Amino acid sequence: MKKGFLQAGHLPTLISAFLYFDLSFMAWVILGPMAVQISADLGLGPAEKGLMVATPVLAGAGFRVVNGVLVDRLGARRTGLISQVIVILGLLAAWWFGVHSFAETLLVGLVLGVAGASFAVALPLASGWYPPEHQGTALGIAGAGNSGTVFAALFAPGLAAAFGWSNVFGLVTIPLTFALAVFVLLAKDSPDRPPPKRLPEYLAVLRTRDAWLFMFFYSVTFGGFVGLASSLTIYFNDQYGLAPVTAGYFTAACVFAGSLVRPIGGMVADRIGGVRSLSAMYAAAAVALVLVSLGLPQSWMALGVFVLAMLALGMGNGAVFQLVPQRFRREMGVMTGLVGMTGGLGGFWLASSLGVSKQISGGYAAGFLIFAALALLALLGLTSVKRRWRATWGAAAAGAARI
């Protein structure tokens, strides 16, 4: 952590942003750890299981754009309050009325997508308080709310076994309500928040090549992270015959690794530059995904490789958001929404393609190999633009932040 970080911004807001993001992410992926039990009760096939766990990811991608616009117009704090209330009420309805069909699981997935859109609230809320030289660290800490997926993987299968999976929807509202209370008390919008834009102006960033590059880069790092977080319980259960609770523990270990290092990825990017650190992470993720596609003979071997993949992807998430606010500081709300949307689309692709791969070919190799190819493509894209970035917008940050 760079010297002076604790005095540079507003620590209560950073803490509340992290907690809001963390527990919202726990809710966002809750279907994945319970997918084995839900599919057994509802008689779902591999493709349906894949679509069920991918639907919250896809819905979250769309709602992130909505939240990105609302953050610019209403402020991050107000947007976060509205979103959290919607999620809590939706989960209470699912618990009260029950979920009895595949179609109803998809409706629950839409509600959970609003929780996934918390990303487009927490990061602009934290970013607005910190100068360029501390962006990687601040957004790494706020973005470490990815760790909420660990709680889902650790506790959801056991709670579902003890109380029934439909009751877990009601139990999840308890920590969400706590996070909402902390958010109300501690979160504040930055006084340096840019004024609201006219609606057509939000799409102006899409005329910028760099916006599309960041969207693609994050679709690989975050898409890989959340796609695996949503799918690994199914994978370990199906591929190695692990019980749902044990498969959840294996998934939690992988997700914990990826979540823990997101702040470290931001800090490393602050010190050595986002381009350099992100390049190494893409290469490592691609190698790990190719290895796991080979169908390792023991579950502990697969666990080790998945942990390496999640470490690379988690650090990559932090590195991407060390770069984004340097290039698009005045458009941080809408860029967080757009970049976060494509991250969700990447997760939807991975989670759903693994289910389709299993149903068509009887294995998961194709899904992993395609995503490894995307990681290599991102590495090539980053290599092609790094010199231009450093010579143009990176030069403006010389002495403050490293590109």
Protein model, in words:
The chain is mainly alpha-helical. It is a multi-pass membrane protein.
Strand content: under 5%
Give me the secondary-structure category.
mainly alpha
Shape: globular
Find the count of extended strands (DSSP E, 2+ residues): 0
In the CATH hierarchy, what is the superfamily?
Answer: MFS general substrate transporter like domains
* Helical segment count: 18
Which topology does CATH recognise? Growth Hormone, Chain: A
The main pleated sheet reads as:
none
Helix share, percent: over 70%
Report the span from N to C terminus. Answer: 17 Å
Q: How many independent structural domains?
A: 1
Tell me the CATH architecture. Up-down Bundle
Give a quick summary of the entry.
This protein is mostly helical and 403 residues long. It is 80% helix and 0% strand. The longest helix is centred in the middle third of the chain and has 32 residues, at 209-240.
List the helices and strands and how they pair.
Elements: H1 5-8, H2 11-28, H3 35-42, H4 46-74, H5 76-97, H6 102-116, H7 119-127, H8 135-143, H9 148-163, H10 165-186, H11 199-202, H12 209-240, H13 244-260, H14 262-272, H15 274-293, H16 299-327, H17 332-361, H18 365-391
Task: List the defining traits of the structure above.
single chain; 403 residues; mainly alpha; Growth Hormone, Chain: A; 18 helices; 80% helix; NO3_transporter; membrane; MFS_trans_sf; transmembrane
